[in-house]
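[Meeting: bench + compute handoff]

Bench side (C.D.) handed over the final construct sequence. Compute side (W.E.) agreed to return the predicted structure before the next meeting so the bench team could plan truncations. Sequence as handed over:
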Amino acid sequence: MARGPVIVLTCDPDLVRDFWLYAYAPLVLDTEARRYPALSDITDALGGRATVERVAIPADCPDGFNEAYYARPERLLDPGARQACSAWSFVEPVVQEQYIDRLRHDLDTGLWDERYGALRQQPSLHGSLVLVRAVP
């Protein structure tokens, strides 16, 4: 049990696959989901009174994680943006290219916007990012 208040910023592995990117890069998000412990494991380890709160991700979030690009999918076409999210490195390069080609196609044809374009107008997203607070 922790001796003082503890705050942990993490992702809820049960929510990782709810993001639109799962339709394009399932192995990336499967990898991502496996890397996070279950929230119950975190709260149990911290002990005391724990709360879990979803964190809003702003549309212009400067951090380099997949959900940070929820309203800017074109960013994921940039290899540097993908490298900022290490889960991509666990997927074979040829598979990564297939994922990106499909995303590029859907962006070029307008299919991405047809399916998810409303996200471009959304000021923030409540995705898998969560804040765990525990007080002994």
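W.E. noted at the follow-up: The chain has one domain: 6-135. C.D. will use this when planning the next construct.
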